[in-house]
Amino acid sequence: VGPLAGLVVVMASFIMGEDASTPALFAAAGALVAVCAGFGYVQGMLVTQLKLPAIVVTLSSFIGLQGVSLLLRPRPAGTISDAVSTFFGTPLLGVPAGMVLALVAVVVFEVVLFRRQAGRKLRAVGSNPAASLRLGVDAGRVTRIAFLMSGAFAGVAGLMLAGQIGIGSGTTGVDFSLMSITAVVLGGVSVAGGRGSAISVLFGAALVQATTSASSFLNTDSSWQYTVVGAITLIGACLFSLARSQTGAAKPAHG
Fold first, then answer.
1. 3-state class (DSSP) for residue 169
2. Does residue 154 contact residue 161 with C-beta atoms inside 8 Å?
3. Residue 152, Cβ neighbours under 10 Å: how many?
4. CB 14 within 8 A of CB 31
5. Who has the most CB within 10 Å: 30, 68, 118, 251?
6. What are phi and psi of 78, to 5 degrees?
């Protein structure tokens, strides 16, 4: 998701310049999100049709997307229209529109995950794909849709990032892959799938952001930032693993 969002920034520097009209900006934004969604769907196809491990698909995509970004923008160039940052920064009831969009997405996903059939299917496939098939759930289709939505939201995040950066850079977005993993781990999400909450991930992301922002206030080197984030990820994973093992041990045995 990091390099994909970074590629959106690079592409935006070509098609969302200062001279672009408002309709052209909206069309370009829609096209970029569609491309990211399509890329996510292709990843899902590789996982479900070719039976490739998801980690292999995403890791190779990470490297490939980063290479494309560097080919297109070996050096920072291409000013992105200020209208992008203005759009996401416009206050709605005192809160930037980008934050409102993120909060709405969190609430919608939380409701869908726990109160809608689509969410139950998603969690079932994440918990046990084979068992979900026996229950009549098309695990391959659910997986492809999950990858498609992941790509689409990475596209939206890339547009937000483009508004903040304001210029095309081939190295933008690389760090966000680590941050995304850290956010979900701290949110108590099982990396094996089937367990997690959108609201808890929001709090995990807030903690990651607070941690990374603290280095500038403390005047510390950026290496400490990565060290702390990595340590927090490891500690969080260990704590949740221990909590789950204790919960399992506490369940009474059935005869």
1. coil
2. no
3. 19
4. no
5. 68
6. 85, 100
